[in-house]
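Data availability (excerpt). All sequences and predicted token strings are deposited with the supplementary files. A representative entry, Helix-turn-helix transcriptional regulator, is shown inline so that the format can be inspected without opening the archive.
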Amino acid sequence: MSSTIRLRLNEILIEKQMSRRQLAKQASLRPNTVNDLCTQPIQRLHLSTLSALCDTLHVSIQDLLVLEIND
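Structure token line:
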């Protein structure tokens, strides 16, 4: 059995009615970075980016990351 960590960024943006562009501007991230995090499976995530996302969206790491068990 293996597991995957999934980023819930799209879901949180919808809940908060925030666009990717707004998030990028408020978090001081490149728009391409936010788009990649929303659309592509990610292999790594810088801690500074994770911190900026949590701070800007006012969520905890547990809200942003989900551990999914694969069969």
